Amino acid sequence: MGILEIKNLSLSLSGNDILHNISLEFTEGHIHAIIGPNGAGKSTLAFTVMGLEGYKNFEGDILLDGRSIKNMPVDGRAKAGITLGWQEPARYEGLSVKEFMRASAKDKSDKAIKEALIKVALDPAVYLKRAVDKTLSGGERKKVELASILVMMPRVVMLDEPDSGIDVASLKNIFETIRLLKKGGSTVILITHSLTVLDEAEDAFLICHGRLVEKGSGRKMRHYFKGRCLPCNHQNEPGETEGE
What we know:
alpha/beta, 244 residues, 8 helices, four-stranded antiparallel beta sheet, 12 strands
C-alpha cells in the first residue's frame, strides 16, 4: 500500500468528462512523475487530490495512509501533509517573502528560511523583505514557493511544471531542492511534459485524454518524449507510423 492512492477516479467538469477511471499508487519517500500532453488532465488530477473548489465531485476515492480523504476539505488535506506547488504561483499583496515562508514552516527560524532561499538560488539579503506580489517575476515566485515547501517538508508534495518560468542556470538548484524533499522523507509528485524533469523521477505515469495509458520506471517512460504515440482508445488515436 502506498502513502497516497487514487482509486478508480473519474471527474466531469461543465458536462465534459475529464478524468476516466484512473488508479495510481505513490510510494512513500519516492519521486514520481505524471507525464502527458497539454490538456491530458494532469493538473486536474492534482487539483482533485488537493480538494480544490470545483474538483470535489468525483467518482472513486483518494486514500492517504489507507484512509479516504474524499470528504476532507482542502485545509484538512494540507494539515494532513499534502501540498501543491502551482505552475503559476499566486501573488500575495502586502506579504513579505519571510512572512510567507514562515507561515507554513516547520522550522520558523530565520536560519532555516535563509538556508531554503539559498538552496533555490535566491539571496536572502535581497528577497527576505520583498513582497510576494507583482514585483516578483513568475520565476522568482516559483523559487519562493519551492523554498516555502522546503521549510514546510510536507508528507506529499505535488509540483505542477516545476521548471516553468525557471532559467536554465537555476534548474540545478530546483532539482537539488526536489532531492532534498525526498531526503527529508517527502513523497514528491512531478507533473510535467519535460524530459529533463522526468529524469528526476523513479516512477512515472503517462496520462492521455484523462486516462492512464502506461506506467513504469522513469527510465522506461523516456520513450514518450521520443515522439512515440502509444495505443489508447481516445477518438484521435493515430495509426502506427513507419519505423515503430
